[in-house]
# Entry
Amino acid sequence: MIFGVPPAIFRPMFIRRTLNRRTARGQAYYTHRLVCSERLGKSVRQRTLLNLGRHFAIPGEEWSLLCSRISEVLTGQDNVLERCSPDLEEEAQRIAAQLLAGGARVAGVVPEGRDIQALDVNSMELVRPRSVGVEQVGLWALGKVGLAELLTGLGVTEKVRKAALGLIVGRMAHPASERATYRWLKERSGFGELIGLDFGDVSPMLLYRASDMLIRHRAAIEAHVFSEAMSLFELQATVTLYDLTNTFYEGAAARQPLARRGHSKDKRRDAPLLTLGLVLDASGFVRRSEVFAGNVREHKTLAEMLDALDAPAGTLVVMDRGVATEGAVAWLRDNGYRYLVVSRKRHRRFDPDTAVAIQTRSDKTLRLFKEVTSEGDEVRLHCLSEDRAAKERAIVESISSRFEAALTGVHEGLARPRTRKKIDFIWERIGRIRKNHSRVSAHYEIEVTASEDGKRAVAIGWTRRPIDGSILTHPGVYCLRSSETEWDEQTLWRTYSTLTDVEAVFRSLKSELGLRPIYHQKPVRAEGHLFITVVAYQLVQLIRARLRARGHHSSWTTLRRILEGQHRVTATFARSDGRTLHVRQATKPEASQRAIYEVLGVDPKPGGVMKTIV
# Structure
């Protein structure tokens, strides 16, 4: 079955500029339309083919050339004379694609089965490739949590709603700034085809308005998405996991009141920072997010987040070492919260005689030594991992080798002429070497042998004396603190191990979903950038959870690389009757792509098939 566009399209076209309205001050607003003339009996009328909008940017002197080029594109002709500039060619291709989109769309495969036509195979051209693989999977996840329906219920207009979906799926498929996401949606992605919005026909400001809208409804969106995810997998909210990460601004960020300099986890001490706090369930889904200043204190943010969640006293809170300050633990204890945190104390202990062994999920053996404090209100769980021990031994030996090599260099220099050998200067050099190798220098005793007059150094010697309870004597040991004094070793460690999912969350946010950096100057836009990433993470977590249940354990980076290879393409053929056939459909999914689609239950040929005869 062949579907055609109205015959009037293929009559001579021209562009008409029409006064749309005037403001109260008399300012005129014009709109641009692509029209053609057609004869009906004895009369001729103009028919609008496409509304080009207020912001149509092609100069008036090029309108005739543009219309000619559009006709050539529709009939499969190349720009052989190269009359059109790159911008004009891009606009002609976009408008022609919109006109062809007016043809009827067939969902999935053409139901008629075979469709035999006489075509010139040598005339075939493939044009307008647009990626649809990640976009199709992103739409599946959006449908599962009902985000579009939620935004409709909140009174969000259709265009802003679709732009918001484009921002979120864009962050999943092409992590970047909002402006780069706009270019991706306009030039490389077929997401607009799937949802019925031509991003080439809207202003970038629409995406910024969508970002502002998401921030206005952040609380409702977070609560809705978390609830839907829990219901979808039939999960019950369990422990509360809390952690912080920070991102940095490009530029001075002078208009950002929360931009502060502090400890950057990316080593960007030169840039102002912004902090993102997340409260997650053990399942890995975000319950709440909040944006804080770049130099925020951890225990203050913890109190604010738990209060916003209405978390009752008695809730179990799990935190990593970076957040588990003494102030944060004291606040939890004073306010009646249970806790399980990584100890920040440097002294290491382990009793192999009373330790118990357990198997981790990766089939590694972990040895656990439990002790209750003398006050009886806190338990310490000392954990020994052989893999971690081997890694720490290698690190220590590497640093020790460099430390000793530096000392050897100073010692050998004392035997060379014309080198500074004063005692005070040599101790200064040793002090700098100690500072540069602080992880091991405390485990060495260093002696400097002086000359007979006591003014010059003649030799340097050292002895390695490991301090008990350190990384040298107890490699691979770390300690957990908890208020759950009645729990056994395995229960404590299994509960803590859920925190590793949080670390995976932050790795995903930062590396896979474009959390860093921030380019915005307006505070609401910076918060919008972070929140878009959080929502995108929720959808990624949902997709991966569904795939993991069926044995697919790939990272999102791997899944994205597999899916982004599928595109929608228009194939153009010359027919034997002189007309042109356009067929637009997605490429056939490869085996790895089809396996993902089958698990999720989505159409393997996104967007269906569209045929048009010109």
Summary: The longest strand covers residues 28-40. Residues 362-473 form one domain.
